[in-house]
């Protein structure tokens, strides 16, 4: 075939520009003044940064969590650009027209990328630099936008001719070189790295492939999200646009001598009906072998038939041919997700003017396309790197979002540039990302708390998953490292189908792993706070095993049943909960739980603590099972609470500083449980197993559940109550031994009971019955404390077996009321008989004797009037007179009965005084005696003048002038 002219360059390759400025740089929330070196690479992006330390303006009002990115390739038409106002231009000024002004004000971008700006370098109008005019107009508009309070500032430009584009940005910005900036929006949106890009424009994608790989590799090494925006010179569903029949013929006309065009032409012929195409060409050249004709001759024949409406055999490209596969974006999509609105998504058919699905050529500018392998295509993009893209959503602002064809269209139907502008307001919906230093390494911290977007509306919950559930990858775009599709056995319709990240189809599992399952190794640590909860279904969602989990009044919920291990350090700072949601799931924490906070187990599943831990804030269970997997898993000398579910010691001993809770089970296995507490607590749950319980410490432990453990109970110190007043069904299995200085009480039951020397047994809570299902034995040094009331009720111990009394003491506590002699109380019964008797009975009523009566199966307390006369306790004459009078009243009289039941002699004397009326007779004497206070006050005041000495002469003085003297004598100011 005859050679043809190779197409001219349509874009200018950028060179490097170096700038420097001083900006406020904010990293991980700390702002500092820093000299920053800024630079551009061949792609060309000059950074215009804001001054000061303010965040990205108020345009992102308060905590908007959003960042507006705009890209606009403004072309290189110099003073002939359609952006200039005609009237101002006639006056010799380059001023943006109203359409351009409305565009920038309407979008109000936080970051504006203008590829090809510096391709206008060297162009001058009326002595004014075209580049300078663009920059100044842009800055003036951005700075005057009422929706933003941030300041866009142009920094010193050393050589405006170098580079092809510019990045304008507000907020705290730091240059990272190579057209890359780091922005701290300060409004809830994550710190972000932004790359302004203008990729290679050649027909063949070789250079773009290299650039795409570099972008992908850079994102993989970063611990912060990366946004790449600008002119990619590559489409989404095809590399250069899906060609219509007309465009294919136009390509063929230039294919001779152009190998790449020729390959494309062959592919387009093969995609159609070649027999029809060959016949048309043969008919146009009846005497020639069509294989000896040039591509131009083929194209002319097909073009003539096409213009006449004939079927040329060619078909509109509805799926890219091999050499039009979107290899550039295929590579980028391996590491980035495409941010686009559904209305701007490219379709599997050639784009038409006005469809909003192409950015080049812009509406009304089709005539500017002189590059034969290209057709209308969306080549201007905004992409966000994985794994962060799943936490970014587009806020659809209507006219000012997506492909802005209408906003850039001029009244005459043309557009401001040959590219359509694009813009997306991106909202950060994931956890906050903070950076911190560990040694010399910068790491990222995920923070889920009140500062995150939608925290309260999402019930304080975040589903943290590696599955990005993306919807921007077609099955035909699943590709190798060079962007070539790999799923070649699919039907055409399958290739046009979006990858379903939840698909169970075996053919797509590797693709799902490669494209949908993000790498979370960037996570240095995850912090959950403010009552938030993070939900995970796999451990890898939290990062590698060295990424710790910090629970700062927050928690982790493990969903499903696939996750079996939590392999990371858990730092408890405040209350931290771990919720195993699935009742059938058993998760083992493989690393330590540390910190000063408390661990709370929630959910129906099982959490096993697989390491000896050091957290000191205590342990609580609300649901499911919390189990010790090793010795030391439960931290000694810390508080424990069970309000549901099970706390399983799993045969490992533990010492608790307190035990409490509203229900659930404490399972000992064969463990020895020690409760050494100074506080008074209550546990309403059950204790089971073959292990033992030892109670020490000065506090009281109340057990209100069915405690079936069989290893025995020892009360060394303080008190153990088996069943409070509302839990008479409480049960303590095995034998309880109470040692010197300790006591056992309650209204429940115990398997067996031994009261050692110095111990106290006190049935009931107030008045109640303690049941002993086995045998009861008292040491001689023990004390049985029983309470009685005037109605005839009393504490008692009911023993199913034998009761050995051993001469123990009995102490009776009496509730308020009148105790009449002759009453009998049963304080102990024993079904299998009583051995021995109680010894000393401590009683403290002066007129009533409390006596014990023993029979073979019971012990009784009897009340009898003794032979002590009332007068024996009286001291004063009045008391004695009253005592004689009251005693004469006899039993049954209310006054007599009240006096006889006084519990000590002092109270008896007080009763006599109250009855004597002597206070009335003494009142006058008391008043006269108190009058001395007034007399003494006057005399003391006079005596003070002589310093307390007696004068030699009668008192008299003449006051000749005013004077003062210290007053040292007492004063009775109340009395006057």
Automatic annotation (TrEMBL):
Gene3D superfamilies, A to Z: 2.160.20.20, Endonuclease/exonuclease/phosphatase (3.60.10.10)
Segments forming domain Endonuclease/exonuclease/phosphatase: 72-395
Residue ranges that the Swiss-Prot or TrEMBL entry lists as coiled coil: none
Molecular-function annotations in GO: endonuclease activity; exonuclease activity
Alphabetical keyword list: Endonuclease, Exonuclease, Hydrolase, Nuclease, Signal
Protein's name in the database: Endonuclease/Exonuclease/phosphatase family protein
């Amino acid at each position: 075939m005859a050679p043809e002219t190779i197409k001219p360059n349509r874009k200018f390759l950028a060179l490097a520009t170096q700038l420097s400025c001083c900006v406020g740089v904010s990293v991980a929330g700390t702002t500092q003044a820093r000299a920053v070196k800024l630079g551009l690479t061949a792609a060309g992006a000059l950074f215009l940064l804001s001054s000061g330390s303010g965040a990205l303006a108020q345009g992102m009002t308060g905590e908007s969590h959003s960042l507006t990115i705009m890209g606009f390739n403004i072309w290189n038409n110099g003073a002939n650009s359609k952006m200039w106002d005609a009237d101002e231009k006639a006056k010799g000024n380059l001023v943006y027209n109203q359409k351009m002004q409305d565009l920038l004000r309407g979008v109000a971008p936080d970051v504006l990328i203008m590829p090809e700006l510096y391709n206008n370098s060297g162009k001058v109008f009326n002595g004014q630099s075209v580049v300078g005019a663009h920059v100044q107009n842009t800055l003036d508009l951005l700075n005057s936008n009422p929706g933003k309070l941030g300041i866009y500032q142009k920094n010193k430009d050393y050589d405006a001719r170098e580079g092809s584009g510019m990045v304008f940005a507000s907020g705290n910005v730091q240059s990272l070189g190579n057209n890359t900036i780091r922005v701290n929006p300060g409004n809830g949106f994550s710190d972000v790295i932004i790359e302004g890009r203008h990729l290679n424009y050649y027909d063949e994608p070789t250079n773009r492939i290299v650039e795409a790989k570099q972008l992908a590799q850079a994102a993989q090494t970063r611990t912060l999200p990366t946004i790449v925006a600008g002119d990619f010179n590559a489409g989404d569903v095809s590399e250069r646009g899906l060609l219509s029949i007309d465009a294919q013929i136009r390509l063929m006309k230039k294919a001779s001598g152009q190998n790449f065009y020729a390959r494309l032409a062959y592919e387009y012929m093969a995609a159609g009906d070649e027999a029809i195409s060959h016949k048309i060409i043969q008919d146009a050249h009846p005497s020639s072998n069509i294989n000896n004709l040039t591509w131009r001759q083929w194209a002319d024949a097909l073009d003539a038939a096409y213009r006449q409406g004939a079927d040329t055999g060619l078909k509109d490209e509805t799926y890219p041919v091999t050499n039009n596969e979107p290899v550039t974006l295929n590579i980028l999509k391996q590491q980035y997700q495409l941010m686009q609105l559904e209305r701007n998504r490219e379709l599997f058919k050639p784009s038409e003017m006005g469809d909003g699905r192409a950015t080049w050529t812009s509406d009304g500018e089709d005539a500017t396309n002189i590059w034969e392998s290209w057709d209308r295509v969306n080549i201007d993009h905004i992409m966000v790197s994985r794994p962060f893209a799943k936490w970014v959503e587009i806020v659809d602002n209507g006219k000012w979002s997506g492909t802005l064809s209408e906003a850039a269209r001029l009244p005459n139907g043309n557009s401001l540039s040959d590219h359509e502008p694009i813009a997306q307001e991106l909202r950060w919906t994931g956890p906050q990302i903070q950076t911190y230093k560990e040694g010399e390494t910068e790491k990222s911290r995920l923070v889920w708390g009140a500062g995150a977007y939608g925290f309260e509306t999402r019930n304080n919950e975040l589903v943290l998953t590696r599955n990005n559930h993306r919807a921007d990858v077609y099955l035909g775009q699943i590709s190798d490292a060079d962007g070539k599709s790999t799923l070649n056995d699919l039907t055409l319709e399958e290739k046009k189908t979006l990858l379903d990240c939840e698909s169970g189809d075996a053919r797509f599992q590797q693709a799902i792993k490669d494209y949908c399952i993000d790498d979370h190794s960037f996570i240095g640590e995850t912090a959950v706070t403010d009552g938030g909860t993070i939900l995970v279904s796999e451990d890898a969602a939290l990062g590698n095993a060295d990424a710790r989990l910090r629970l700062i009044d927050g928690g982790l919920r493990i969903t499903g049943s696939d996750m079996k291990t939590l392999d990371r350090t858990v730092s408890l700072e405040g209350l931290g909960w771990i919720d195993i949601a699935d009742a059938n799931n058993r998760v083992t924490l493989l690393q330590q739980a540390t910190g000063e906070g408390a661990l709370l187990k929630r959910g129906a599943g099982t959490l096993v603590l697989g390491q000896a831990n050091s957290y000191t804030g205590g342990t609580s269970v609300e649901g499911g099972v919390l189990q010790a997997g090793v010795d030391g898993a439960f931290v000694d000398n810390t508080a424990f609470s069970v309000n549901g579910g099970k706390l399983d010691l799993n045969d490992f001993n533990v010492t608790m500083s307190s035990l409490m809770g509203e229900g659930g089970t404490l399972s000992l296995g064969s463990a020895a449980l020690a409760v050494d507490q100074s506080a008074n607590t209550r546990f309403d749950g059950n204790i089971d197993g073959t292990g033992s319980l030892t109670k020490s410490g000065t506090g009281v432990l109340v057990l209100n559940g069915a405690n079936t453990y069989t290893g025995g109970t020892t009360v060394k110190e303080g008190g153990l109550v088996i069943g409070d007043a509302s839990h008479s069904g409480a049960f303590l299995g095995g034998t309880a031994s109470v040692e010197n200085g300790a006591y056992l009480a309650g209204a429940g039951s115990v398997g067996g009971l031994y009261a050692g020397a110095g111990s106290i047994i006190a049935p009931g809570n107030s008045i109640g019955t303690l049941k002993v299902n086995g045998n009861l034995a008292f040491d001689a040094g023990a004390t049985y404390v029983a309470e009685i009331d005037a109605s005839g009720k009393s504490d008692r111990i009911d023993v199913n077996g034998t009761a050995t009394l051993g001469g123990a003491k009995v102490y009776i506590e009496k509730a308020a009321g009148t105790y009449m002699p002759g009453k009998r109380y049963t304080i102990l019964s024993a079904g299998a008989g009583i051995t021995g008797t109680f010894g000393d009975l401590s009683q403290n009523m002066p007129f009533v004797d409390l006596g014990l009566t023993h029979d073979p199966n019971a012990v009784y307390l009897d009340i009898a009037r003794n032979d002590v006369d009332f007068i024996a306790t009286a001291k004063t004459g009045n008391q004695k007179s009253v005592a004689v009078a009251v005693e004469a009243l006899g039993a049954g009289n209310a006054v007599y009965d009240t006096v006889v039941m006084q519990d000590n002699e002092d109270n008896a004397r007080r009763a006599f005084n109250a009855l004597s009326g002597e206070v009335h007779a003494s009142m006058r004497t008391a008043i006269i005696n108190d009058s001395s206070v007034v007399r003494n006050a006057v005399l003391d005041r006079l005596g003070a003048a002589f310093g307390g000495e007696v004068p030699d002469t009668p008192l008299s003085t003449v006051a000749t002038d005013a004077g003062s003297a210290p007053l040292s004598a007492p004063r009775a100011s109340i009395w006057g």
